[in-house]
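Notes from the 1:1 (GR / supervisor)

We went over the backlog. Supervisor wanted to see one worked example end to end before approving the batch request, so GR pasted a single chain during the call. The sequence is below; no edits were made to it. Supervisor asked that the structure be written out right there so they could see what the output format looks like.
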Amino acid sequence: MPKVICCESKDNILEIAIKDKYLSLKSLGLLFKLVNNENSITNRRKLKLETLDGDTSLASAFKELQKLGYLKVERNVIEQKGKIESFYKLGIFEI
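Structure output shown during the call:
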């Protein structure tokens, strides 16, 4: 399950997102939660435990944030374990 890593300029992301007419309220709420996450690294499993939303709801919100350029998936190969680890990087990205 991909982890979410937060960004440097949290205020800037929220300012842009609030004015984005293509962003649903569900995705805006998820973005707000991700940006204001105390640990700055989380994953969908943890978010599901912290909210009333189910897998499908969270998946569609993550997909929307990716589509609109607020999240970017990065995959890293962990050399020692031979595993591929995925991260959602939070920021404003070109789409």
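Supervisor's comment: Strands lie at 3-5, 41-43, 71-78, 83-90.
Batch request approved.
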